[in-house]
Amino acid sequence: MREEKITLINKLGLHARATAKLIGVTTRFTCRIQMGKIGGKMVDAKSIMSVMLLAASNGTELQFVLDGEDEDQAWDAIAAMINDRFEEGE
């Protein structure tokens, strides 16, 4: 099991397009992936509706819990997507 924290740095946070891109990454992996705001409810990071309901804006610190064989590869892909601002350039 792996636990990680990361801050959203893209201008609009987890809006619809960014969430769809995140789900596109998380669903490629077999490990269980949970995410949520620090100190808040954890949700299934492979469920677009659950992630959208987090209403995570720019500057929100998120916690991820990954559990499974490919958890390291999954985290690397998730962190790369977030750190690249979901390919939005802002």
Automatic annotation (TrEMBL):
Chief place where the protein resides: cytoplasm
InterPro entries: HPr (IPR050399), HPr-like (IPR000032), HPr-like_sf (IPR035895), PTS_HPr_His_P_site (IPR001020), PTS_HPr_Ser_P_site (IPR002114)
UniProt keyword terms in alphabetical order: Cytoplasm, Phosphotransferase system
Name of a matching Pfam family: PTS-HPr
Record localization: Cytoplasm
HPr domain span: 1-89
Superkingdom as given in the UniProt entry: Bacteria
Gene3D superfamilies given in the database record: HPr-like
Entry similarity comment: Belongs to the HPr family.
Entries under NCBIfam families matching the protein: PTS_HPr_family (TIGR01003)
Protein name per Swiss-Prot or TrEMBL: Phosphocarrier protein HPr
The organism of origin for this protein: Pokkaliibacter plantistimulans
